[in-house]
Amino acid sequence: MKSSVFVIPISILLHLLIINSSLFFLTPETYLLVPNIIYYNVSWLLITFNLNFYPTGRKERFFTNLKKLVYLYIIYGLAYFSLFAFMKEFSISIQYQLYVFLVICLCLTIYRVLFYIFRRTYRMEGGNFVNVVVIGKDGNLKKIKQVFDEPDLGYRYQGYFDEQKSESSMYLGRISDSYSYIIENSIDQIYCTVSKLSQIELKDLIAFADNNFKKLKIIPDNKEIFSRAMSIELYDTIPVVNLRKLPLDLEFSKIVKRIFDVVFASLVVLTILSWLIPLLYVLIKLESQGSLFFKQKRHGTNRKVFWCYKFRSMQVNTEADFTMTSKNDMRVTRIGKIIRKTSIDELPQFFNVLLGDMSVVGPRPHMELHTTQYEFQVDKYLVRHLVKPGITGLAQIKGYRGEILKSADIINRIRYDIFYIEKWSLQLDLMIIFHTILNTTKGEDNAY
């Protein structure tokens, strides 16, 4: 059996079974009313339909649409709790209902995990597969074949057709030979490299696929410029490629990230900085003259300049805006060495977060001098300024922090920054924060 039309209906029924059985056993007094039963089920169906939650792509894995799953839980949670506003005749414990809702979410998540584990196992045992061929060979063939070769995706790559003959075992013949091969070998999907076909050949292939119930997928001529962050938009019938569609371009994502930043920064200010500031004021003042805080102009979103705050860890000097801290730097005070080693000197930047200049997680802001220097030396350097800079970032937990000793240091830092921008999620932010705290407790070689 290569595919199943029953996967989505079964998933919908099982999801509704989980919701209804959880409500029946945990909160029967509010559930066993016909209007409420209808509301719980219809609201789930409407929300999942509007989120386009159920169509599952062949390449989709558990983490592929995790963000959509979180959105679903948030929206359904709002619908779930809004019902209680109309149930005044019942004595309702919101704390208990929160527990019930969390149980529902946990059960649904467990089902989702088990679903992908079962599907992966089933495909690796040979089920739910599709036979595919590629027509036309160019630089993309090697990349797309790597996807086909992943066993849990269920592709069975048979080979390719091209006008240029090859000794490769995957070469199946000329393009004109492909039609009979596709029919005789029950090929399900045809991938066509558009740069290798003429307009007439492409039209003939489209007609052949339509007349023989074969799925045809076009691989465009990308001129090696496409990126993982790209998306395709339709202007009438004309496809337009957006080369850098970022998760944080969405207003909803911006709001989620901002709420998280404000809540997290407020907690740090109230629980840590409230007592740390007076303590460090005394310690820093005892050792050297100068202010408690050090401020420096840094570049933020779209290169907007802002004042970035830190606890002062050096003697007051005239080189701070031009020279990065180096190992055994004589400017660093004794208390400065401690707070720099533990990254405590960065904590005042939570005030920058509350002011809206920074985020808890993002590309680290550089001095103005370095931005001017690296924007011409490092390819795509300014991409990092498409989002707010962060107190910590993906590059930092990967070891690319502090002094830049060689070109690879800044190049790899920018690569991680761009990856973070293109793949942002709240889950990624939490992972980076966790590893930042872990690295701080262990100590880092570049923290000096």
Report on the structure:
This protein is α/β, with parallel strands linked by helices and 448 residues long. The chain has 15 helices and eleven strands. The strands form four sheets. It has a five-stranded parallel beta sheet, sandwiched between helices. Strands 6-7 form a two-stranded antiparallel ribbon. Helix 12 (368-377) links the parallel strand 10 (359-361) and strand 11 (390-392). Helix 3 (34-50) runs antiparallel to helix 4 and helix 9 (251-287) packs antiparallel against helix 11. The chain is flat and about 85 Å long. The model has no long low-confidence stretch (mean pLDDT 87).
Lay out the secondary structure.
Layout: H1 7-26, H2 28-31, H3 34-50, H4 66-82, H5 94-124, E1 130-135, H6 140-148, E2 155-161, E3 171-173, H7 178-184, E4 189-193, H8 199-211, E5 215-219, E6 231-235, E7 238-242, H9 251-287, E8 293-299, E9 305-311, H10 334-341, H11 349-355, E10 359-361, H12 368-377, E11 390-392, H13 394-397, H14 407-422, H15 426-442
Parallel strand pairs: 1-2, 1-4, 2-3, 4-5, 10-11
Antiparallel strand pairs: 6-7, 8-9
